Amino acid sequence: MPRTAQITRLKPGKRTDIRRENESLIRRAAEKVFAEAGFGGATMQLIADLAGLPKANLHYYFPTKEALYRRVVQDIFEIWLNAAACFDNAKGPVDGIGAYIDAKMEISRRHPDGSKVWASEVMHGAPVIQDYLETTLRDWTDGRIAVIQTWIDSGKMAPVNPRHLLYMLWATTQHYADFGHQIETLNDGGPLTDQQWREAKESVKAVILRGIGAG
Amino acid sequence: MPRTAQITRLKPGKRTDIRRENESLIRRAAEKVFAEAGFGGATMQLIADLAGLPKANLHYYFPTKEALYRRVVQDIFEIWLNAAACFDNAKGPVDGIGAYIDAKMEISRRHPDGSKVWASEVMHGAPVIQDYLETTLRDWTDGRIAVIQTWIDSGKMAPVNPRHLLYMLWATTQHYADFGHQIETLNDGGPLTDQQWREAKESVKAVILRGIGAG
DNA sequence: CTGTTGTCTGACCATACGGTCAGGAAATGA
DNA sequence: TCATTTCCTGACCGTATGGTCAGACAACAG
User: Fold this and answer.
1) Strand C within 7 A of B66 CB
2) CATH numbers and ranges of domains, chain A
3) Could you read off the pLDDT of B39-53 as tens digits, one per residue?
4) Distance between CA B153 and CA A201 in Å, rounded?
5) Hey, are the CB atoms on B179 and A119 less than 8 Å from each other?
6) CB atoms within 10 A of CB A67
7) Is any atom of strand C within 7 angstroms of residue B54's beta carbon?
């Protein structure tokens, strides 16, 4: 039934619409509540209120609190991995790492809640996404380490331990999301302006790139 | 009664001993449980079990869960601030920032749970220690920024935004505690060895110090 | 129109949690 | 020894939470 399929895609029908709309609503609300209160502190009632739906409706789309949480964490992980693409098609460390820092800083700015949920999950021993750490993340990390090593071998940057360099990149960029509240407090209580975000990016890039002898 | 006071200090008496011993027991257990489960996920029963005491006994020493939590966070904050002393009596950025990195890395290694509790607290909007952020931390930060600025003005380091440099120092060092589980997973599941910790410290110091033009 | 499937929800339940309390045990001081 | 203070704890309570369910309602297919 190609015709039906096409119609379904172009005119999805009310049911499909409702499902996608509500799932999205719930996931966005859950991301915020999980980020603000942690898994244990978050309640389905809070998420339901924020989503503007009855609590029972949440359990219609997501069987358990854990299932909803897992979905939220997976979404974040995907965004986070996708943003690392710019790392690959780079000629050298200045392009590659510079673009990676830009991308990750942008994620910290646009998806601070997601970053917090991820941080929380890892801090608590990654009970839900341990398998991701052991497979996808490990593979990705090994690949990037190899790339950095070729840059070192070809003299494009100083011989810095690639693994610890990666940790520094993650730490410095995600800090602006995970510790955003602290940063705002030290910024007279307000969020960083466009100019301040630009300065943050440039500062991080300046120190790191000069630090690896590629600035 | 100076005699009584002195005797109390030298021979504290069983009651004083018991109190100090149990309070310490509870605080250490609480630090671990709060770090592993977050404030919301932690239960007084879990803390009690880990401390080897009945739950009701916890409420004898700490009236509420929040009071116990507040105490744990305060302890960490103190350790964290004290370790920053080495920053002050330094001639220049290489000594000062190098020693600061060493000290903070050592804290990440020795008090990972404390660091996690602190991170969790800040990530959730610092509901308990907001006043500390606005007073002590802000003052400390302003002071260090001034010091770094003098180093820049006297040409001892490159003109890097001091505030963002501080954030980088916090982020990179605390990452080894807060994301310790992720790091261990990427390290074949085991904790870093002495050699690996040394390498981590050296990598961070090398990149940062060279990055600020002081390496 | 009619049957079927998917969507929604108020009311309900079992459990687990933070916190209380009465009263017993142990240490201390006189 | 006796009185007083501190320490301890099993049993208990009110509440809030995650999750369930029967049944109402809306969309779709034939």
Assistant:
1) yes
2) 12-63 (1.10.10.60), 74-211 (1.10.357.10)
3) 999 999 999 999 999
4) 22
5) yes
6) 13
7) no
